[in-house]
Amino acid sequence: MRGSPTNGAGGGGEPPLYQEVRKRFEQGTLTSPPKQVQVGRAIRRHTCVVCQRLIRPGQVQNDFRSDDGARASVHTLCLRAWVDVSRAQKAPER
Ligand SMILES: [Zn+2]
Predict the structure, then answer these.
(1) How many angstroms is it from 4 CA to the middle of ligand 1?
(2) 12 CA to middle of ligand 1, Å?
(3) Does 62 reside within a domain?
(4) Residue 88: in which H helix or E strand, if any?
(5) How much distance in Å is there from the Cα of 40 to the middle of ligand 1?
(6) Residue 3 is assigned to a structural domain of this protein
(7) Is residue 27 assigned to a domain?
(8) 8 CA → ligand 1 middle, Å
(9) pLDDT confidence of residue 67
(10) How far is the centre of ligand 1, averaged over its atoms, from the C-alpha of 71 (Å)?
């Protein structure tokens, strides 16, 4: 019998992006992900709200409105990580 010494949460290797998203989620600098986004190609440069990197013109971006009505954009991969992390975290209700 062989056991592997990994003590991760399972799922096989978590990308660094997930760890970053979770950290920001726990710190409260990231709120719940939007329920609806508009997917399209960026025609101007935007800053991804999750990874803070640029979304360049021609890249796929996900547009949404935050709670205060401001428009924001996020990469597709970042959005997926954001949704996954928020589901796993189950923010405490109040
Ligand atoms: Zn991003």
Answers:
(1) 33
(2) 22
(3) yes
(4) helix 76-89
(5) 15
(6) no
(7) no
(8) 24
(9) 77
(10) 15
Stretch 18-36: mean pLDDT: 92
Domain count, the chain: 1
Residue 93, φ and ψ in degrees, nearest 5:
-85, 145
CB 67 within 8 A of CB 31: yes
**Is pLDDT above 90 for 82?**
yes
Q: Would residue 14 count as lying in a domain?
A: no
CA separation for the pair 22, 17 (Å, rounded): 9
Domain that holds residue 42: 33-89
Residue 77 CA to ligand 1 centre (angstroms): 7
Residue 39 token pair: 């997917």
| Ligand 1: centre distance to CA 3 (Å) | 36
Give the model's confidence band at 13: pLDDT under 50 very low, under 70 low, under 90 confident, else very high.
confident
